[in-house]
Amino acid sequence: MRSSSVRAVLLRLLFLVLAIIGPCAAAGLAAGENKPAISQSFFPTRPPHIEIHFRTGVLIEYGVGNKSGSATIRDAAGRTYRYFLGSPLNINGRQIHCASPIVPGVRFDRFLCESGWPVDVVIGVTRVRVYYWHAVSPRAQDVVVTDTINRVP
Fold this sequence. Notes:
Helices cover 16% and strands 35% of the residues. It is globular and about 40 Å long. The protein has 153 residues and is an alpha+beta fold. The chain has a five-stranded mixed β-barrel with strand order 1-2-3-6-5. It folds into two domains: 37 residues, no CATH class; 99 residues, CATH 2.40.50. It is built from one helix and six strands; from the N terminus they run αββββββ.
């Protein structure tokens, strides 16, 4: 078989596969599944006139992926609380675009934090106040969301 024939066969095969997978993707179905795939990002913006609450504790986790992000605090009684991250996110009054924060003992990669992490907010050490509201996730779960985290003196 000549290379042009092989190329033509491969292209036809590719178009056949795309013809089969395309309608599934357009319908929101993952290949081989019969339920909708949840693929949307969840970085909600604070709704106007929403009731805002706050909680104080030590920031013990922070992370952002492609679909969502979260921050976790531990209060004085030892209870932990996890919050989805809203957009835009402000820490100490400054907008933050960080996938990963500064963690003591771990080499900081500036590529993962284009805006720069606040040096006075240290994971596992710094007391913060998290301002949050109640929302519903794309999976129809009741969740809490924050877009403001401030260091507590």
